[in-house]
Give the backbone structure.
Amino acid sequence: MKKASLVVLISGNGSNLQAIMDGIHDGTLPAEIKAVVSNTKEAYGLERARLAGIPAVVKTKRKEQEREQYDAELAEIVKSHQPDFVILAGWMRILTMAFIGAFPYRIINLHPALPGTFPGVNAIERAWQAYQKGEINHTGVMVHLVPDEGVDLGPVLAQRIVEINQQDSLEDLERRVHQCEHELLVETIQKTILQLEENHA
């Protein structure tokens, strides 16, 4: 089976990147990461990539630069690695069609909330606060395609509930959500690769 080529976009610690690398290493994921790209030069995920011998690229946005111009340049960097899929694993910038249009239905995003809940940043913290107010009794994680500029919208590939317990601190909930993210992201990429193989068979 041909390995799927991935480019992973990150902005921070890269724990989800690590989960993908671990999945490849243990044979769960029939894939190869061609490059890791970060919009912040201090992202620890870049170090994870370098330690694994994966090209690590920093692409910061200049203050005066238009978003579309940045995204077009970013798309060229990613295109040069010819990925089957682009994985947004903790990428904290909203992408415009200048990027999205270059990879139609091949961009996979991970979000630490269920579909239609807590889009954007600080989703886990906002879920925890909503639980404290009695508004919800669980949160979750979703993996979805990115067809357009909607924030944390798009066809859902997978979702999983994460219960919130009465004694949970925010840190407890964060730890469980991140664990769920790592598992669900790897499982979903694996399924998506297999579907791609079947479609080409």
